[in-house]
């Protein structure tokens, strides 16, 4: 049984009882690319409106202040409301202990990812333990005050929260007020509804109307839940299972207080970004940050390689008429057959002019013996009659089948004129009903899907669409790409002098973009200049590019203008850098673009947004960044799904290093020994790529090793590579599976 309580109407002067909190922070975040939500950071000056000044200070409300994490922001709001650190438990990975204040507990449900109810139950059992286990408490900093002596016994109430609601402070206030409000129901009244033991927030549902119950924005009486969680671990149960059967009051709270960070678009709206994601997190974030372009209809010849935006459905049968599979004679009934038309005569087609028929012996027709058009079946074929027909020609009504020309002969008779008879070589099978007749609709029926939504259109799809009568196909268009090359020291031809470097990007990035399905619409080259960089960004925005790739200028020196200009224009920063080598200074963000929004499938016009992929200046670092960030962005814009990396077997041990490394690599064949690294065979390399694409791990009898010369400023190793290996920072042993990424060409 439940009661409805309006948050706006609940007021109480009673002192709030001691309240604890269990904060879930260890979900899979699948819609956010698997990134740890709790450690997403607010950009400077981009924190959401906080419930009060203290929480606003905690998130860094002024430009230039230190960023804070989403989890820290939520915990700051709880602390401002008097919820002690010792009464707060975060359920998530152990690594979160570095992101919480002193005294806050960090525990993990067992098994991990056992669901929200199991996570809350773990937190409740932790709070109920006396004394608090020291090994779940974040280490106290020097001089930090602890409130461990201010409370004894168990709390009266406990908040059940998810860490991905940045503005939950107001909802917490309303829930606590509801719990402490005087109960107007007399305890002596046997007909009265039972007093609530839990209060769950409800927010307006703008999309579907009505309200949405926020089970992970609830408050409950601690002793009741503690007893429940002692008896049940709630593995793989939803959050509402914890309160099943209990009297719950549903409390209205403002819509914004229940807004959560469930997608990358929601993260953008709160100014959140990932700080230094690992390689796989960066790939997922890059894919999630880009939205498929709006569908367009293009001519068949332009559709190959594009993603089909919707099912293309047949509107007529294919073939759309009964046709002959052979050159010969359409016949009706058993032999012999009187020939309806002799070679050179004409056969009347219904509604058409008379046309000369072809010769029955297969000889090339003269101008006066033009073959009967395929669509002209002529008058119905009477029993005992035959009529010449070519492959693909229409079968006349009344025909029982087709006799191939090599099994037939035409004879002149006095009684009936020309007569068709089977010759001595003709098998009995030629007289079977329907022989050599392609029935209408045998390939396609109306309503059949000709090209399914979501496939990359091939020449075969185009040909099949053509025979079905389509002139255009609905597709996700090619992303419009801009390329900006920077650097005072870069020359585009000749041998560089001391202090100069030869451009390695200009000759290859356009072809890589084209290979990945993009269309380069504007290319600029500028020296290191803040003013010129600003002007270049303006030109790309005016050109309406969907994604801008820049090379160089992503470091933190005085000459790195690309990073500064991008940060000053960004409406959202997906990540400022990535935690991988080479490629660490890679940045991804969103900024204003042209006048109309062609980068969204949403209806209606709006400001166009332009994604910016900032590639490092070192050539191998930039190539790695293209693979980790550029490929996912272009795939998402084209409507393609995120990649699932394969694994291959490692040839030798790898020592641990400080971060993950993405290294050009080649295949080693055990049967023939190590592959010569200077000039790998092209066919061998293609076989390696096919293995990685088609299978989960490398084939038996082969392993992979890093190429030589793979420093961030080197390209020789990449020129010898058959793919990229991802070396985990913890190291690996020979024969261990390690992630493998195909080359983007």
From TrEMBL:
EC top class named in words: transferase
Residue ranges with Low complexity bias: 358-375
Entry EC no(s): 2.10.1.1
Superkingdom to which the source organism belongs: Bacteria
SUPFAM superfamilies the UniProt entry points to: MoeA N-terminal region -like (SSF63882), Molybdenum cofactor biosynthesis proteins (SSF53218), Nucleotide-diphospho-sugar transferases (SSF53448)
Catalysed reactions, semicolon-separated: adenylyl-molybdopterin + molybdate = Mo-molybdopterin + AMP + H(+)
Keyword Magnesium: yes
Entry keyword set: Magnesium, Metal-binding, Molybdenum, Molybdenum cofactor biosynthesis, Transferase
Metabolic or biological pathway, per its Swiss-Prot or TrEMBL entry: Cofactor biosynthesis; molybdopterin biosynthesis
Pfam families, alphabetized: MoCF_biosynth, MoeA_N, NTP_transf_3
CDD domains found in the cross-reference section: MoeA
Family recorded in the similarity comment: Belongs to the MoeA family.
Name of the featured protein: Molybdopterin molybdenumtransferase
